[in-house]
Amino acid sequence: MAVEQSIGLNSRQQQVMRATVRHYVSTAEPVGSKALLEAFDLNVSAATIRNVMGALERSGFLYQPHTSAGRVPSDSGYRLYVDELIKPSKPTAQRIDRLLTQQLNWQGWSVEALLQEAAQILAHLSGYVALVTMPRSENMMVKHLQLVPISTEQVLLVVVLDGYGTESIVVRLPRGTTGVGTTQDDGVLERELQILSNFLTTQLCGRPLSEISSLDWDEVDTAEHHVLALCQAIDDLTQRKRQPQTHILVTGVTDVLNQPEFAEQSQLRNLVALLADGREQLWPLMCSDDSYPLKIWIGEENPLEPMQGCALISATYNRDSMPLGSVGVMGPTRMLYENTIAAVEATSSYLSEIMSGLDVNQ
After folding, report:
1. Cα angle 76, 80, 81; round to 5
2. CA distance linking residue 143 with residue 172, whole number of Å
3. β-strand 166-172 against 129-133: which pairing, if any?
4. Cβ partners under 8 Å of residue 133, min gap 6
5. What stretch(es) of the chain map to CATH 1.10.10.10?
6. Which residues form the Heat-inducible transcription repressor HrcA C-terminal domain (predicted)?
7. Exposure string (b/e) for 234-273, b if CB count within 10 Å is 16 or more?
8. Of the residues 173, 236, 265, 313, which has the fewest C-beta atoms closer than 10 A?
9. Distance CA 183, CA 57 (A)
10. Helix residue spans in the chain (DSSP H)
11. CATH code for residues 11-85
12. How many CA atoms lie within 13 A of 36 on its CB side?
């Protein structure tokens, strides 16, 4: 991902470069000076436009796919366009925010259902593939915990997270710590498990799953062996949830593959395979950091070969100030970036607002 830098084009070069990108995005045909003169009010002659386009080609921002053809933006040209020549479209941002507000009803939905529907709206509006990474479980808030007896030596710890996602792990109690086969002993175990369930819920409700192991067990009055076994199981659960996750929701593949850039079958197969089976490779490309909350990969900037004819734009969605996941769009480099960036940023902002408003006590 390139860092924004000034390249010092004069105003006429900027005007012609901006017009060339927009004309090529709309037609998918190499752009000539006559086409720009007819389509845009540049207030210069065709000869002047040709000279400016020649200078832009020598600088590496345009190229000719064929000797007799017009010019096409290069990856460097698109990067210039994104970094220097545009601002995100406010009307597009307002439109997708309105659609999300009208069509998404959070009440009673799971987090996954909400994210899937948001991705479908983003894909429909942009015309490209929409991708959303699921929240990392350790950053989700605990809503409720329950210990469910499986046998006299096994207990299931169920953790209900906000958005009604769940995590679970089997707790193995040490042999000989409970009686076997008597109603009285089963009743004792159930009472102790209820005490522990209430304690865990009281201690952890409204806190991230990552804090589940930082408990003051001195406050709970129940069998020590249960506590020791539970501590180990909780530690195992939190360690498991700290492992990298690659659950990415993908929608809109069919529409974008109709674009002329994907006419070559080998390129099409490689991209489809990546979206179907290689999503773990997309995860690090989408995950933003504090320095770059918006990430844009263009063409050969992409480290993944099947994506080197594509652009990927993603932004983080948060709970308050805590990053939960990322939402993005992938399409051909021939993309109207001002609209796509606005759509991605508006979607991430909407999801952040929803996530920050979740009430785990409901």
Report:
1. 115
2. 24
3. unpaired
4. 245, 247, 248, 249, 283, 286, 287, 325, 326, 327
5. 11-85
6. 112-341
7. beebbeebeeebeebbbbbbeebeebebbeeeebeebbee
8. 265
9. 85
10. 11-27, 33-39, 46-58, 75-80, 90-103, 111-126, 183-204, 224-241, 253-256, 265-277, 279-286, 337-356
11. 1.10.10.10
12. 29
Strands 248-251 vs 129-133: parallel, antiparallel or unpaired = antiparallel
DSSP class of residue 83? I
Nearest to 273 by CA among 249, 247, 253: 253
Reply yes or no on domain 90-136+245-356 having CATH 1.10.630.10: no
- Among 22-31, 38-47, 89-98, the minimum mean pLDDT is found in 38-47
> What pLDDT sits at residue 139?
61
Q: Which fold has domain 140-241?
A: Enolase-like; domain 1 (3.30.390)
d(CA 11, CA 31): 20
Q: How confident is the model over 115-124, as pLDDT tens digits?
A: 999 999 999 9
pLDDT at 107 over 50: yes
CA distance 105 to 125: 19
Beta-bridged to residue 161, according to DSSP, are: 142
Residue found by looking up tokens 């210039």 in the block? 80
Six token digits for residue 1: 């991902």
Total H helices, total E strands in the chain:
12, 10
Q: Residue 32: phi, psi to the nearest 5? A: -110, 170
The helix-helix angle for 111-126 and 90-103 (nearest 10°) equals: 140
Written as six digits, the tokens of 250 are: 């993908």
Confidence (pLDDT) at 179: 43
The model's pTM: 0.75
At residue 184, the pLDDT reads 43
Per-residue pLDDT band for 324 (boundaries 50, 70, 90) equals confident
The most confident of the ranges 74-83, 112-121, 148-157 is 74-83
Distance CA 241, CA 157 (A): 15
Q: Which pLDDT score, from 0 to 100, does residue 98 have?
A: 93
Looking at the chain, the domain(s) classified CATH 3.30.450.40 span: 90-136+245-356
